[in-house]
Design a protein that fits this description.
2 copies of one chain form a homodimer.
Chain A: E1 5-10, H1 14-25, E2 31-37, E3 54-55, H2 59-62, E4 69-72, H3 77-89, E5 94-96, H4 99-116, E6 120-121, H5 132-138, E7 145-151, H6 154-166, H7 170-179, H8 187-191, H9 194-208, E8 218-219, H10 227-235, E9 239-248, E10 253-263, E11 276-283, E12 287-294, H11 298-313, E13 330-331, E14 336-343, H12 348-351, E15 356-361, E16 367-374, H13 375-380, H14 382-385, E17 391-394
Parallel strand pairs in A: 1-2, 1-4, 2-3, 4-5, 5-6, 8-10, 10-13
Antiparallel strand pairs in A: 7-9, 7-11, 9-10, 11-12, 14-16, 14-17, 15-16
Helix pairs in contact in A: 1-11, 3-4, 4-9, 5-9, 6-7
């Protein structure tokens, strides 16, 4: 595909309009938007479009032989999957930023790409403007990789920054994130850790060549964070961040989870504030690499979509090389974590089988434990742990593989 | 090239031995070192090699039809250029980490790659383990890119960190860098800014599609830094870092230079310490991206060479797309900088045409000026500015294009 790219765009919300603006800024891109499919063509919009560009009929794009790239930036997962799979089946390459859809359907989408010999690119789906997927696929494509860990969600990080660095309360910080357009249409997606989880699922496919179902991964968000947790962190001179990580425990096994973490000032991610994302890639020989950039907002995401569009000019596609590696590691939840558990009415040590309690604090207002617990136990009890009086945070340390 | 990679290695110093060790650690690489060409085959080495691997005759590698990749990690520039160009002329792909050679010969090497339809990869040449070249080539391959700026030399940064953060004096910090193997065989290469310059030349080819001769770029190092400069920086609560930068001034023009810089604590590069490198990529829409990792040392560089080797498994090559862009910007030195100039015996305002002096401090021990000066004037007077009693540092601010 070395001629001009003619784009059929699905979705014209914040990101869709950002793509339109970014394409107007670039003179060497050789790409233009031909049609845009939206739910309501008559809705008032801030962008002046030529007549006939908007349509509400997907077939106007999917059946247009002139369109050679589909860019999908719909907010919903299942309608997006229908469009993306229909396009791939027709042999039309697709660029997508839809992490929920990708995390749920990656195995089928990889199979569709193989069967129809067509590309699906989605660097924009993880960490907005940071090229994590592309680097894992191309640059860290060897056995040296040990760990990918980071702050993958801009809006929850923005909220925690307002709380920790600006002394705001949680509710007003959430409202501000929504006003600034950093929060997704459903804020629970960001705040409960699912946005980070979906990104982590995608990252793991490109980091280790293994797909893990979202439901099999422990995911805990920040919605139950409480003044006493913030006070605790301030006293210890640490921050609480929502962190996603995938870690090799040995050549054969790896683990992954999303949960709040107690972050020491010496860690790279400690200074990833506001709506920024930061990813640490750790490997043998090169130690730690850190990538940092804007993780939320219309234009950063759009610029990342532009990079995927440009890559199609040169026929780039993900090869999913690591899925064919000999001795790919297996996912395990048989690993022991050290956690901070704050609670008030729930009797946590009845709910959760703790391997060892290191600290216990009891007061009129709230209580906390520092304890060792198996990740498999956290998954088994995850519904009970979502009680509004409980908050959980990982205390990072070397963790051993308990299955071996 | 999807079968096994058989490597002919030129050079078996720190980096060459690192590559040997890294290849032993990886089981999925499908690459092995077949022959190693060194100056002295009888030299005592720490690595046990099978008999017959070492040779001192380049033809043993260049004429071996079994060898399908040449990895060149020689310390010297001109012998390296001979080997690399001979290999390319024979159609053998090359991986090189030799920035001096690349910065001097890139236009010829690009032409050789085109003429013989063969790849030369050199991500390891810039910033050790950070994938700057690959990302500029593939991910930031559009008009949005505005600036690439960073700490590109690990050893000078290590020295400045020892001086600023550990209160060591300059000479003992330099000795320590050499003991730890961070400094190149000729330390002036690192300390006078030439290592950073060569990397900047390579980066600019992949950032903006323009090759600038090393001799046309103002380059100023840290060898004349003095206690009074360190005291000045401490009093102002800033650090002095050796910074290389290429900056678009407008759609049509860009400038570039290497010099010490007064870095405020709020800047990303402020916290790039020790032997680390850090690069900030700034663009329209995505604002600033920051990449950070180990920039010096045997294994980090070797792991980067491994990434280039792996890329050859998938026939990757640089396309130099931006060299074909319409309206590539032109290099200009017609830009005004604000600088800190410390001096003792030299009468700086006689040597240098200053546009405006903002501050002047005179004392028994040493004197300094804060002044605006044209970059073209710094280039014209660069020999005089290397007097041992002068030290120069850029004070970053928005700078205007003075040619337009």
């Amino acid at each position: 595909m070395n001629s001009k790219i003619k784009i059929g765009l699905f979705g014209f919300g914040t990101v869709g309009q950002g793509i339109y603006k970014v394409l107007e800024k670039t003179k060497n891109t050789h790409a233009e938007i031909k049609r845009i499919c939206v739910r309501d063509v008559n809705k008032k919009r801030n962008v002046d479009l030529p007549a006939g560009v908007l349509t509400d009929n997907p077939a106007d794009i999917l059946d247009d032989p002139d369109i050679n790239l589909i860019v999908e930036v719909i907010d919903k997962g299942e309608p997006a999957f229908k469009i993306v799979s229909a396009a791939l089946e027709k042999g039309i390459p697709v660029v997508s930023g839809n992490k929920a859809m990708l995390a749920a359907h990656l195995p089928e989408l990889i199979e569709l790409q193989r069967r129809h010999n067509v590309a699906l690119l989605y660097d924009a789906s993880s960490c907005g403007s940071i090229p994590v997927i592309r680097n894992l696929e191309e640059y860290y494509d060897n056995d040296l990789l040990l760990e990918v860990k980071g702050i993958l969600n801009g809006s929850s990080n923005f909220i925690l920054s307002r709380v920790f660095d600006h002394g705001e309360d949680y509710d007003s910080a959430l409202r501000r994130a929504q006003e600034l357009g950093f929060a997704e249409s459903d804020p629970s997606f960001d705040i409960e850790g699912f946005d980070s989880l979906f990104k982590l699922i995608i990252i793991t496919v490109h980091a280790l060549g293994v797909y893990v179902r979202p439901d099999d991964v422990f995911t805990y968000g920040i919605s139950t964070i409480h003044d006493s947790d913030i006070r605790y962190a301030r006293e210890k001179r640490v921050k609480i961040k929502l962190v996603a990580q995938v870690v090799k425990l040995s050549d054969d096994r790896f683990t992954m989870f999303v949960m709040p973490e107690i972050v020491q000032p010496s860690r790279y991610i400690y200074s990833v504030d506001d709506e920024y994302n930061g990813v640490v890639i750790r490997g043998e020989c090169y130690d730690r690499q850190f990538m940092f950039g804007k993780g939320a907002g219309s234009l950063p995401t759009a610029s990342s979509i532009l990079s995927d569009i440009m890559a199609r000019l040169h026929d780039y596609r993900y090869e999913y090389k690591k899925m064919n590696y000999e001795g790919r590691p297996e996912y395990t939840t048989g690993v022991e974590l050290r956690v901070y558990i704050r609670y008030s009415t729930t009797n946590v040590s009845h709910v959760l089988r703790l391997n060892r309690v290191h600290e216990q604090f009891i007061s009129d207002e709230s209580n906390y434990l520092i304890a060792d617990v198996d990740l498999s136990e956290l998954i088994a009890k995850r519904d009970a742990l979502r009680a509004p009086d409980i908050f959980l945070a990982n205390i990072p340390r070397f963790f051993a593989d308990r299955d071996n």
